[in-house]
Each structure stands twice: as structure tokens, then as C-alpha cells.
Amino acid sequence: MEYPAEANCFLVEHAVVIRDSYRQLLLKELIPDVQSDRQFAKQLFYAPFAVVSHDTASDPIFNYANLKALELFELSWEDFTRLPSRLSAEAVNQAKRDQVLATVSEKGYIDHYEGVRISSTGKRFLIKNTVIWNLADKNSRYKGQAAWFDQWVFL
């Protein structure tokens, strides 16, 4: 999968699905006051908060991470976009994570999620006040799920 960059407009089509799904479900903006889709995609990639998304596979694979998320998980874009999203949580926490994602599938989103994640080097961190939501394209086709968080504590 292509790395977000100026040359590909920071994967603007996927960023727009993230933005529009968030707006539709939460009735607010992920990044307020952005004028264009391209500007939004760039700001999303360089945002001070973390945003990730995964696809619709039976064992979903991450298909997006902004720079902050890549830093927290200590992974390159290439490695992150090959990672099953369940592996972002330790095995002991995966059942709870699966329950949360099932709730999101049913209700559309949750906010105030809290859970422990693990980086590629084994650093554990608690994410707080996380929003997780379903992604849908402009034709209402399910495209996976995304998560946003701006609070984390290394354990």
C-alpha cells in the first residue's frame, strides 16, 4: 500500500472516508476549519493525535496510520499496513478489544474507550478517551473501522 505523501495527496480518498464517517456518526469535525480534502488529508497525517483504520477482512489488517500512530506503535508504514489490527493489543487484551469492535459494528461508534496497546518493541501504553467508529464510503458501503485518540500513557 502506498505511503501518504504529497505525491499521492496523503491518500486523500481514504482520509475523506475517515473524515466523512466521523462527521456523520459523531456530528462534529475531526479537524475543524479545513478548506479542502487535500488539506484535510495532509493535516490528518501530521496531526498531534493518533488515527488508525483497518479494513473489512475477517481478521482486519491496518490500512492507515498517521505519523503520530506510526511513532507510538514504532512501525514503518509498510509494516503497519501488514499488521492484523488485533496484534496492536496484547493477547490477554484481545478478547476485550474484540467485544468493543463488535459494539462499534452494531452502534456505529463508541467514545471514551480505554485500552492497553503494545508497540513493535514491546512498549505498552494505555490509550484513553478513544473514539472508534465505522467507516463507510459515499455509497454507504462498509469500509472498516477507525480509531482516534489524543491521550496515552506509557506503562
TrEMBL record:
<feature type="domain" description="MEKHLA">
    <location>
        <begin position="13"/>
        <end position="154"/>
    </location>
</feature>
<protein>
    <submittedName>
        <fullName>MEKHLA domain-containing protein</fullName>
    </submittedName>
</protein>
<dbReference type="Pfam" id="PF08670">
    <property type="entry name" value="MEKHLA"/>
</dbReference>
<dbReference type="InterPro" id="IPR013978">
    <property type="entry name" value="MEKHLA"/>
</dbReference>
